[in-house]
Each structure stands twice: as structure tokens, then as C-alpha cells.
Write a structure and sequence with these properties.
Helix content is about 50%, strand content about 15%. By secondary structure, the chain is of the alpha/beta class. β2, α1 and β3 form a beta-alpha-beta unit.
């Protein structure tokens, strides 16, 4: 586990909390591995009925820690395709337990795309969602090119995934990928209420019903693999190299 990730079990609910506030919960390879482990070990554990993913109050996650991400990708495209981030996405794709997301503040990149693997999403009124992959010369990831159009429609997905437009909590609720909008600082409390409601339901019926209405894991992993391959190719493109250099240059000037 990592100091930047807290995993706790309370009752029948496992809570995965991103805890790196000084970096807006930007996700490192170690954090991805910790989240994967927390999800994977819940699969055959009958004591865990629900999983909550949260960033605490004020921020969900700014997405990948770009410096850590670039360092991990230096080993080449094959390493990128089998990275800890991809393993985390596989864990989400194969997960059989209901996942609730509690989003308070910004959800950038994978902070947004992971939500389409969740079963119930709560957002604070100050939450914002964005997927600026194209701005970095990259392509969508996390099977978002499959799940986002299915959930919010092609036109909204194009605006987010290709144009890089952000979305407010209110708009996300209208679009259909946020279930409930609550006051800032209340997402985690409300998420636990939803988890308790789910845990009161018959476990086998929940599992079967969830499986029936979700995209099949094999279809998800095929799209994850396709996106990962293209993502790795794009990492060495002139557009992406230039965008990352510009980003890191701006960061050093701050």
C-alpha cells in the first residue's frame, strides 16, 4: 500500500480514499497498484458487499501524476500497455461488486473516465469533470470511447473526449452519469448511505442484476487494450512530446 491511499473496511463496505491533497490527489503508479489490490481482494470476500472510491473533501483527483507517468513510460510502449494504470482499469472491468464514487471537486482525465465503470456516482455542486487527452496530443483511455457515448450520448462524448470540454456537476447529472448532486463536503457521507441501501438488498440478486445491465468485461478489456495501444503510440508523437514539454515548462515557471 502507499501513504497516498487509505483503504478501510466498515461494515460491508470497503472505502478507497485518495490522500494526496498537496498534488490534488494526482495518481501515481503506486496508487494505481494499491487501488487495484483493494478492488481485486474484495472480489471473493463475502464480507465486502460494496466499494466506495473517494478523494475526500475538496478534490477527487487531477488524474495521472504526469511526471510519474512519463517516468513509468520511459521503458517503451510495451511497458505503457502493461502499466499499473492499465491493471487498475482491468480491475474495474472485471469487478463484480457495486462501486460508488464520491466526487467532491475536480475529476480530471482518469478521474472522470473511471466513473463510467462505477455503478452509482455522487458529486458535490462544485465538482467538475474533464478529459483533456486531445490537448496533450493523446487519445481517450479507460474504455471511455466505448462507455461515455453509451452513457451520455455521442455528441456530449465528442465534446468531452475530443474537444476537451469540461462538464459541471449539474450538467453531468442531466447527462446521466451522476446520480445525485449534494453539498460540498457531503459526498462521502451520502455515499455510505447509498452503500448501506445496496448492502440491505439480496446479494446474489444484486450481482446478477448488475451483470445483466453492464457491458461485458471482455468487451471492456478489448477496448482498454485498443486505447492503450493507440495511447502508447501517441506518447511518442510530435504533438504529444510538444504538449508535455510545454506543460512541464509551465510547471517549472510556477
Amino acid at each position: 500500500m502507499t501513504d497516498h491511499l487509505i483503504v478501510t473496511d466498515e461494515g460491508e463496505t470497503r472505502t478507497i480514499t485518495l490522500r494526496r491533497p498537496e498534488k490534488k490527489n494526482a495518481i501515481t503508479q503506486a496508487m494505481y497498484r494499491g487501488m487495484s489490490d483493494a478492488i481485486d481482494t474484495a472480489q471473493n470476500n463475502p464480507l465486502v458487499r460494496c466499494i466506495i472510491i473517494t478523494g475526500g473533501s475538496g478534490v477527487f483527483t487531477a488524474g495521472n501524476d504526469l511526471e510519474d507517468f512519463l517516468h513509468a513510460g520511459n521503458a517503451g510502449s510495451e511497458a505503457a500497455r502493461t502499466s499499473a494504470a492499465t491493471k487498475f482499469l482491468y480491475s474495474l472491468a472485471h469487478n463484480v461488486k457495486p462501486i460508488i464514487a464520491a466526487v467532491d471537486g475536480v475529476a480530471i482525465g482518469i478521474g472522470t473516465t473511471m466513473l463510467f465503470h462505477c455503478d452509482y456516482v455522487l458529486a458535490s455542486t462544485t465538482a467538475t469533470f474533464s478529459t483533456p487527452f486531445i490537448h496533450l496530443g493523446l487519445v481517450p483511455e479507460g474504455a471511455s470511447s466505448l462507455l461515455m457515448p453509451q452513457t451520455i450520448g455521442y455528441q456530449r462524448a465528442f465534446a468531452m473526449l475530443v474537444m476537451g470540454r469540461s462538464m459541471t456537476a449539474a450538467d453531468a447529472h442531466i447527462a446521466g452519469f451522476v446520480n445525485t448532486v449534494v453539498a460540498p463536503g457531503h459526498t462521502e457521507v451520502e455515499a455510505h448511505k447509498v452503500a448501506r441501501d445496496i448492502c440491505r438488498l439480496p446479494a446474489e440478486a444484486v450481482a446478477i442484476g448488475r451483470k445483466l445491465i453492464r457491458t461485458a468485461p471482455d468487451e471492456l478489456t478489448r477496448r482498454i487494450d485498443q486505447e492503450s495501444y493507440l495511447f502508447a503510440e501517441r506518447m511518442t508523437s510530435e504533438e504529444a512530446v510538444g504538449a508535455f514539454k510545454a506543460f512541464l515548462s509551465r510547471k517549472k515557471k510556477k
